[in-house]
Amino acid sequence: MVYQISNELLTLAIDGTGGAMQHMVFDGQEYLWQGDPTYWREQAPHLFPILGRLTKGRCTMDGDPVTLDVHGFFRRRPMELAAREADRLTLVQTWDAETYAAYPRKWRVLLTYALEGSTVRITFRVENLDEKRLYFYYGGHPGFKLPLEAGLTFEDYCVQFPAGARLRQRPVTGAGFMTGEAPDYPLEHNQLRLRRNLFDCDAVILEGTGGEATLLAPGHRRQITVSYPQMRYLGIWQPAGTDAPFLCLEPWCALPDRQDQTTELSEKEDVSCLEPGAAYENTWSVTLR
Fold this sequence. Notes:
This is Aldose 1-epimerase family protein. One of its GO terms (molecular function) is carbohydrate binding. Pfam families: Aldose_epim. The protein is an all-beta fold. It has a single domain (2-288), classed as Beta-galactosidase, Chain A, domain 5 (Distorted Sandwich), CATH 2.70.98. 2% of the residues lie in helices and 40% in strands. It contains 1 helix and 24 strands.
């Protein structure tokens, strides 16, 4: 099932599987990557209850065994319609026996999209329905088509960060695990100029970004701003060694595992914790120009 909402400026289509955005049309133009298995078949998945990889695909949660694939199961599971207006939509996904076997907690997620002018506002709400504490990660993974204007190339674009941002890189290994290092990542004029070899070792993961990143070609009109005030990290990614016509700007609350590190989920850096009956909300946005 695909749902559509719109306002005077934007049209947004959302897939009922995982609640991923499928189309994001502004000023008559598609801004969202349309998916192609040659490069990456997905478009804008939500990542829950983990981000990235667990070492050997497993860990524990207060001693209970957890077994999860890359980025967790949420993006592959169906959602139901909870509420809908012309410019607003809420979908719901709830635990079941299959999710409980892999991730032994009872939970519910409400995913809301709201259109405000040329901005898509996304709220991810997690509710703990269990009698035990719930530990989880959350992140977005939207891909945006590049170039956005005829006559431009991938290398004409940059990612612009707010003035005063003090970036550090969180490097990853070739296998997609964190190295544990956090070197400074200085940029000229707070702009990361895009080039294909940036992604030879998987994603560029940054912290200290000021909670905002804008994808633009200097001197050109069309641009995309992702704002993520509750997220500590931003992943920037496209498939290594390709000419993929898109770029992902991924706001994350936490990081994947370090290489060969199998730990208790409750002890992981930046993990979110909900007491029984409690709820968590994270709102981030995409603004098109």
